[in-house]
Write a structure and sequence with these properties.
Layout lengths: L7 H10 L2 H18 L1 H4 L6 E4 L2 E3 L1 H6 L8 H22 L6 H18 L5 E2 L5 E2 L13 H6 L4 E3 L21 E2 L6 E2 L10 H37 L1 H16 L2 H11 L4 H10 L3 H14 L3 H8 L4 H12 L1 H24 L10 H10 L5 H28 L1 H4 L1
Antiparallel strand pairs: 1-2, 1-5, 3-4, 6-7
Length: about 400
């Protein structure tokens, strides 16, 4: 019989894992994350493998680090994760006996951040002289496209299951139904096309990147601001608590979505501006939650002992109290990610999202404008529903696992 999980956090996760809907939510979220990570390998014109006169090559690897193909930083992060994920999984498995799960995940994050920085530094020699970064603008190699594989006759290729780029428009491909064969590629558009001639299936895959990026980044910003304000308010008390809580109440008085609409309408509609706006307007609830946890923890014996030892206030707050208040933050984060996904989809649906991004809300807006073409509504609507439902299921499972009343 295996030993019981040692830490309270592990025991809580084991308790949550017993619920089928929690497991289904975790699996669904993991599927969305994998589809977003490996989107260029599932939908794109660059060959996965190419055998030609020069031998075997993998053009898709060069393509994912080409700024002419993927110019956004969030795409670079996902592309790096796609390349490094097998190595990270192997490291976590090999080091499972020597390092804790938290340590292994920390090293994986450090490796990903280091790679994200290194690929943007000019270190590689350029053929014409000088140096260039791995992530730089290079000509797109047309010989590795699907048309070359079909008509070139100089080699053969293994292509992506959806051999269409998410941002490519094709002649005669406006509002075509699901299963339509694209004459330019000879491949089917399994979810049809949109009013601009894009493959909806390809845009759905890359739309998952937009939703997950905005969900995690916006929630991270809200958690950071809310945690700092709530911790200072709950731990300090007195006039500091009074002033900060009045600020929190002012933020909570504003309708968040209307505030986001107003700010986005007056600023740029770039995806990073949208992340920042959602994060800066969504921290009030987190601040109140953290304040309550710090109020209850600040009277505990371990806090009194830390104060008697003369430890700095900041160290007591963030090294001793915060780890004991982290469980409600995890629960709040899952619901916050779901809310951010809905917020971004709502902005794009109203025409205030990034027009250059493959957003699910943008596809829904096309469906609203063209109600006779139902595939523009069903695919993104179902994706938003399933992702938000999965995140809420994970959050509810964590809430029940960490709630003493629910577990008793």
């Amino acid at each position: 019989m295996p030993d019981a999980p040692a830490s309270p956090f592990a025991r809580a996760l084991a308790s949550a894992w017993r619920h089928w809907w929690f497991r289904l939510g975790c699996v669904s979220g993991a599927v969305f994350a994998l589809l977003a990570t490996y989107a260029p390998f599932l939908a794109g014109e660059a060959a996965l493998l190419w055998v030609g006169p020069d031998g075997l090559s993998a053009p898709v690897i060069a393509d994912i680090f080409n700024r002419n193909s993927y110019a956004k930083h969030h795409d670079l992060l996902f592309n790096l994760l796609a390349v490094l994920l097998p190595a990270m999984a192997g490291f976590c498995w090999l080091a499972r006996r020597r390092l804790t799960l938290a340590s292994r995940l920390r090293w994986c994050v450090v490796a990903l951040v280091a790679a994200f920085v290194l690929v943007q530094i000019p270190l590689l020699p350029r053929a014409s002289g000088g140096v260039q970064a791995l992530w730089s603008e290079r000509p797109v190699t047309q010989l590795t496209s699907i048309t070359a594989a079909r008509d070139g006759g100089e080699g053969w290729a293994i292509l992506a299951p959806i051999p269409h780029r998410w941002d490519a428009t094709y002649r005669g491909a406006v509002l075509r139904p699901p299963g339509w064969v694209n004459p330019a590629s000879g491949a089917r558009c399994w979810l049809g096309t949109d009013p601009s001639g894009h493959d909806v299936a390809a845009r759905m895959l890359f739309g998952a990147r937009i939703s997950l990026t905005i969900g995690f980044v916006a929630t991270g910003i809200a958690l950071l601001i809310g945690t700092i304000i709530g911790a200072v308010s709950g731990f300090m008390g007195g006039k500091v608590d009074l002033i900060l809580q009045r600020l929190v109440e002012i933020m909570m008085c504003f309708p968040t979505f209307l505030l986001i609409l107003a700010v986005v309408a007056m600023t740029s509609r770039d995806i990073f501006i949208i992340m920042l706006v959602i994060g800066l307007t969504s921290w009030a609830g987190t601040a109140r939650l953290v304040r309550g946890e710090f109020l209850s923890q600040s009277v505990r014996d371990y806090v009194t002992a830390a104060r008697s030892l003369g430890l700095p206030t900041g160290r007591i707050m963030f090294r001793h109290v915060l780890p004991n208040a982290i469980a409600p933050l995890l629960i709040s984060a899952t619901f916050g990610i779901a809310g951010s996904v809905l917020g971004e989809s709502g902005l794009s649906f109203l025409g205030l999202g990034d027009p250059r991004a493959a957003s699910w809300g943008q596809l829904l807006n096309h469906g609203r404008e063209n109600p006779s073409f139902a595939w523009l509504i069903y695919a993104p609507g179902l994706a938003i529903f399933v992702l938000v439902l999965a995140l809420n299921a994970v959050g509810e499972g964590l809430r029940q696992a960490f709630d003493p009343k629910a577990s008793s």
